[in-house]
Amino acid sequence: MPAAVSGCLLARSMASHHNHHRQRGAAALPVINIGRLGDKDPAARALVVQDIARACRDRGCFQVTNHGVSKSAMDSALEAASEFFDMPAERKAAFACDDIRSPIRYDTSSRDGISKARSFLKHYANPLDHWVDSWPTQPATYRKKMGTYAVEIQRLSMQLMGAIVQGLGLSPMYLEEKLEAGLQFMALNNYPQGSSRAGDTVGLAPHSDIGFITILLQSSPGLEVTHHDDGGAWTPVPVIPGALHVHLGDHLEVLSNGRLRSLLHRAILNTDEARVSIASIHGAAMDEKVGCAEELVDEGHPRMYRESSFHDFLDFLPTNVKAYRRFVETLKIDSA
Ligand SMILES: O=C(O)CCC(=O)C(=O)O
Ligand SMILES: [Fe+2]
């Protein structure tokens, strides 16, 4: 439905920007070298698992280095995303679609309630051969570049989830099959350059992601995070060359029965340049219900959340436009 997409929507939402004071979180965000996660020596692996567990618990996010995703795959993915967004509006509008269940969707408007000044392309990626035919054929290298990146990120997500569930006291294999057959949902985000006179301008309003984890790559700074103990202060996520940012989603909060919390994050317009980010959300399959791990429910830790699927999340989304709530809040079981 190309008619639904008009170039002026972006300009209109930019005009209604909000000013924010940038506050710095107390301590730098954790950067974890995960090179030894695959080590045969369990003690070497355990040290990394411990660092990840602490970062998940205390900050809800961390960056990883030595993660095995090649620098060229990362650069190429950002290139492919930029080249897509640089195409003429009509070409991108071919992917515009009102149905949030569409396998691929391009939009420039703020109909979702949180996009203030972003255009995005969203599509699925795992398993790649199932979804790649729905991806853009232009730019000509898009499928190759984004596909290579997607596969490497899916592999990394499984390795990270193995460590995260181990950090919760579960077997590293706990989710392996569900993740293998699970959902990889990619959001390519495009933000205009912000005005330095306007102060901090929100491109994407605060929200948490569905899924267990999100792995995010940004072309330049703009992502900001706030964890539950941060007292509302926003911490900018620095761009560390070669590193990838990881944060926790609503379904990990559910799985962990509240031991871990999903991360609230937002994107600020970069005043030096237009910005592109690629978020890869990793969760269970579309109709797979995710509940609290039984191993983490006991007398001292009563079940905190109802089970839900990605499908349930999509049903919830259109109802979440006026006053934003984290999906996971709607899943809480009244303990009263
Ligand atoms: O652009 C960013 O850094 C954040 C993107 C994001 O949060 C998302 O796509 O869910
Ligand atoms: Fe997000």
From TrEMBL:
It comes from the Eukaryota. Keywords: Iron, Metal-binding, Oxidoreductase. The keyword tRNA-binding does not apply. SUPFAM superfamilies: Clavaminate synthase-like. Signal peptide: none annotated. Residues 182-284 form the Fe2OG dioxygenase domain. It holds the Pfam family DIOX_N. PANTHER family: OXOGLUTARATE/IRON-DEPENDENT DIOXYGENASE (PTHR47991). This is Fe2OG dioxygenase domain-containing protein.
